[in-house]
Amino acid sequence: MSRVLVVDDAAFMRQTLRDVLEGAGHEVVAEAEDGEEALALYETHRPDLVTLDLVMPRMGGIEVLRELRRRHPEARVVVCSSVSDETSILEAIRLGARDYVLKPVSAEKLREAVAKAGRGP
Amino acid sequence: MERYRKLFLEESLRHLEAAEEVLGRDAAGPQDLEAVFREIHSLKGMAGSMGFAAMAELAHRLEDLLDAWRVRGTVPGAEERELALRACDRLAEMRDDIAAGGAGDVAWDDLAGHLGRAAEPEGGQGADGLRVRIHLAPDSGSPAARAYLILLRFREADPAVTSDPPEAEILQGGGVEALDLVVHGLGRADVEALYETLTEVAGLEFPDPAPLSEPAPHAPVPSPPEEAAPPPPPETSPPPPEPPEGPRVRLPETVQVPVGILDSFVDLLGELTIARSHIENSARRLGSEVLLEEVDRLGRIVRGFHSRVMELRMLPFGLVVGGLRRLVRDQAARLGKSVTLEVRGEEIGLDKSILSRISDPLVHLVRNALDHGIEPPKVRERVGKPAQALLRIEAERVRNRVEVRVCDDGKGIDVEAVRRRAVDLGLVTEADSRSLSPAEIFGFLFRPGFSTREEVSELSGRGVGLDVVKAQVDAMGGTVELTSSPGEGAEVRMSLPLSVAIVPVLLVGLGRRVLALPTAAIHRTVEASPRDVRRTPDGHVLLTEKGQVPIAALGKIVGFPCRTRFERMPLVLTASQAGTVALAVDAFLGEQDLFIKPLKGPLRALRGVGGYSVLGDGRLVFLLDPPSLLPA
After folding, report:
1. Who's near A100: CB < 8 A, 6+ residues apart?
2. In this structure, what CATH number is given to the domain that contains residue A61?
3. Do A90 and B519 touch (CB under 8 A)?
4. Number of CB pairs, chain A paired with chain B, less than 8 A apart
5. pLDDT attached to residue B122
6. What is the ipTM metric for this complex?
7. Do B492 and B508 sit in the same domain of this protein?
8. Are B300 and B332 in a shared domain?
9. For range B166-183, the mean pLDDT
10. Residue B198 at interface with chain A, using a CB cutoff of 8 Å
11. Is the CB of residue B519 less than 8 Å away from at least one CB of chain A?
């Protein structure tokens, strides 16, 4: 089971993600509502996994991902984004995101993505 | 190349003997057949990388047959085993031909048809790589992103993977239903394991190879090694003009290339990479989106070219193992010890520069294990272990590195003895040593002069001259660590880059200058705030969960002007001979793969510098080697 940092600017999304993740036995160690907070909380908690929204105020998800992977190449990130944003998703994958889940988030797909991203090499 | 040839001859003989032994047995079970499959698989890989096309092809065909048995799950009858044995005999003849200076071109067309019929054409992994088809889930959102993710995941395992649709097309976006990949150096099991880590996928297939590589009933057959009879003219096409005299010219499927040319490829590739960065910088200055797009495209081509060139330079790990087998056999006999050597990952490809430099450390470690680690049979029985000791040498691809491990089940190393000696030598105070983890304590074994034969072999059983191993591994850009439990054995684990020429680095700024640190040497980077830093009589230290880490200003060490700030101080944590140290720099400038050129002439005397490169903007950047940069 993974220790997860949930990053999303929408409170209801964070709650949804938390419910699904905790329901699957993961531990949500912190929630961040923007990119800067995400980076700071990552340093504090060193989670096994980050679920990352791409569109956020101040610092967007792509920038967070870039910075996070620069500082911590081992960081595992599952992107949560909407389908209209394919270019950003491709960019996120290029930057090393382990997986992505499209919004609206299907609980089943999120569980699978988090389970698989949390293990393996 | 002569050296590899010798290794190849030794190894191939061993594989064949092992295979024939099992095939000759009446009571061979599925597990034995699995072993034969592995022997022939290794043989195929070795023959392929040595350019012995006929041998590789026949081994491939035989492997298909063995794979078919495997899939079928039943033990084959005598007739089928006879066929496999005949193929082994033919492979042995090819090997003899190679030993006699030939290329192993012994005819085997009489076997081709039988082998082809006996083996269900299930596709396989030839010199062309393994074909893989992955179906995306029909409800996969953004299939292009899904396909791209799968491609990148496979590229981590095989940098030379090719895909259909190709990357550029995937990145255009749009509908993809299935992704066809050709992977190299991965078996079906590897692919299946990788597939298990994917999401939103709906099926995995190993399609048949293209019809071209199917066994034709009259497959073109290599000419016999003797030149006695001229080959019969082909029936369907006019005979090619023959040279007036001498052996028949046969254009081979593979060519042998002098190693120097491969090296120059890497040089040119480096120039190309640098030229691309120059163009990119110019394009940015001009603000030309069109040009930037083209540069991006160029970058992808360069990367593809890079992986191909690197692939050309790959040789199987198994090539260095042959000599080790003999070493183990001879040394064990001499010492009156009984040792089984188990080797895994012989097919793993390594850049020839790494392969040629891994041999010495491996010999050293194997000797250590035999001399000092593994106990005589009597002693082993007394402590309740099997008289026969087990020595394992394993190579494994771990992301974009190779891990090479040497493990034995000998007496292991007493961590307490190592700790005491470290204290005796004044490397650490008694009090500090109490808080060290076993891994940190074993780390002392790699310090120069720590382990000497007389003292350490007695008290710890292992670790003689490990500083030499560490120096050799460091020089390759690798890392080495040791773990051990007393009574249960020891494991030395080396993590090596796939190639020495292209080094992933972190660029750091010092004033207006730029320096590169190999990311392999970096534990982590921190932007420290004032509350993370404390002043002590010995200078500043960084407070971490694991204790205090001394801070050293990199600018002072290398003599570059720098401005050390104490708010958000960028620190690079790295290993030095005196333990972990935090190097203070002015800024992190980003990570990059640099093509490193070695220093020449008097510059070679520069301490702590591992080479140089030229950045995209034309600036010269030195690659630092942290362990040798900092005094012990």
Report:
1. A78, A79, A80, A81, A89, A92, A93, A113, B142, B145, B149
2. 3.40.50.2300
3. no
4. 49
5. 39
6. 0.89
7. no
8. no
9. 84
10. yes
11. yes
